[in-house]
Every structure is written in C-alpha cells, then in structure tokens.
Design a protein that fits this description.
single chain, about 270 residues, alpha+beta, 7-stranded mixed beta sheet, about 25% strand, globular
C-alpha cells in the first residue's frame, strides 16, 4: 500500500472541504442536534459538516474499494468497517464546530488512515483560517505546507492548550496540578493558556508552541474527544517525535471496541 499516494488523495479531499468552509455563507448557518457525548461540542452539527463529509467521501470511497479500506466519519453512523478491514479512514469533516459557529479561529478538516490495531499511519490537517496544511506519513515524515516541518525553538514559558478556559474545565484541579508539575520539571516560572479551538488545531498548537501540553483526564462519562478528533494529530506527533498518548502515558488505541469516544483512555499531547 502506497502511503504517499493515499496521503495525496486525503490532502486533495481536505483542501476541497476546506474550500467549501471558506466559501460558506455564514448568514445561512443553522445548527442541528445530534447524538453524542455530554458536551455541547459533541452534540451540535451544521449543514456544512455534512457537506464537507460528502466532499471528502467522493475522494476516499474509491480508495476503499481499491485497497479494501474502511471508513469512519463523525457525521455518519459507525458501520464497523474499521474492524473488518486492515485499515480505515478516520474523518472529521469540520473539527471545532463550536469555534466555527462562533466565528472563532480553531476549526479545521482532519483526515487520518488508521490500522485495525488502532495505530495511525497518515494524518492530514487543513486550517481554513490560515490556509496552513499539515501532514504526517508513517516512515516518511511530517510536512507543513508541503515542506518538511521544522519546529520552532522552545519558549521560556509553558503553554497549556485547551478548548475551554481552565475555570470551565472538568477536573480542573487535577489539570492545574499537572501543569504546575510540568512547569517545575522544566524549571520555568510561569505558564500561559490558549483556549477556544477544536481538538485538532489545539494539538497542532501544542507542536508549534513548545513547551506546551494538551490533556484530558480519564472519566466515566462519554466524551473526552473521539477517534476522529485525535487520529490525524497522533500520527503527526509520532512522526515529529513528540508525545501523544493516553492520559496515563500508554499508547492510544484509536480503534477501540464498542465506542468511538476516548473518555476511558484520556489524552496527553506534549511538546
């Protein structure tokens, strides 16, 4: 299987969906309800989410037939093809829907190719607000705007990246303690917070603002992000040599049985 060729197809799909996002008439925006976890972000969708998924599928479905790939997308019911094929596409047509609804930067298109064992081998992310394109391909490397991605020099403070402000985050005391421990371990004096984006671009911000972290502790309730929220960026982080694990530091399983949520694993991204 030619990962580079498949990554090129996924890139074309992401860019085309991104173009639809950029051209979307916000005056026609209507928010729909869908089944999801216990957070607003997991329960809302727009007509644009569905349009982007349709665009992406026109590119990916021919590869499913040619290479016997499954597909899992946020806006379509899980057909279990991720268990019956060696690899499956994992798609978030519009990550950061709340950011998009609020006209806040932090929304993106995310496409990953994941093995049946739950390991990502391709990760493509497109940011329609900046036109930045990110890619990770297993064994080949990482790219920003089609050139090898060279990370920035570390800052003199830790950056905590989050969808919500820390004050509004569940288990905030656990997170505060983790942040303070990290600050001390790095011999830094302070930390700053960047909030409001979707999970995909938040992970990208972790890579671009070293030292930085994004974390979601484990919890009993559904939520904590879904497979499509992290699959692409896990691949990118692995190719960059950065940390992208469960909250407890073990390898993330991006193809768990009986769920698409990651609440029982938690997530930890660190640069």
């Amino acid at each position: 299987m030619d990962l580079k060729a498949l990554a090129d197809i996924a890139t074309k799909a992401a860019l085309k969906a991104g173009e639809a996002i950029q051209k979307f008439d916000r005056t026609s925006l209507k928010v729909q309800q869908k089944e999801g976890g216990n957070t607003l972000a997991s329960q809302v969708a727009t007509a644009l989410d569905l349009e982007c998924e349709k665009i992406i599928r026109t590119y990916l479905e021919p590869t499913c037939n040619q290479f016997q790939l499954g597909i899992l997308s946020e806006e379509t019911e899980d057909d279990q093809s991720r268990f019956t094929n060696d690899y499956f596409w994992c798609v978030d047509p519009l990550d950061g829907t709340l950011a998009f609804i609020n006209n806040h930067p932090g929304f993106s298109v995310s496409i990953a190719l994941v093995s049946k064992e739950g390991k990502p081998v391709i990760g493509i992310v497109f940011d329609p607000s900046t036109n930045n394109l990110y890619a990770g391909i297993h064994g080949i490397g990482t790219f920003k705007n089609r050139k090898p991605w060279l990370l920035n020099k570390p800052n003199n403070k830790l950056t905590y990246i989050t969808d919500k402000t820390l004050a509004d985050t569940p288990q905030k005391e656990v997170i505060k303690k983790h942040i303070q421990t990290k600050v001390q371990a790095l011999a830094l004096k302070e930390y700053q917070t960047i909030s409001g984006g979707g999970a995909v671009l938040n992970a990208i911000l972790v890579a671009e603002n070293s030292p930085a972290l994004l974390l979601k502790p484990t919890k009993l309730e559904k939520g904590g992000g879904s497979l499509w929220d992290f699959a692409a960026t896990v691949c990118i982080f692995q190719e960059l040599g950065l940390t992208a694990t469960t909250y407890n530091g073990t390898a993330l399983n991006l193809n768990p049985k009986n769920t698409t949520f990651l609440n029982t694993q938690g997530v930890y991204f660190c640069s």
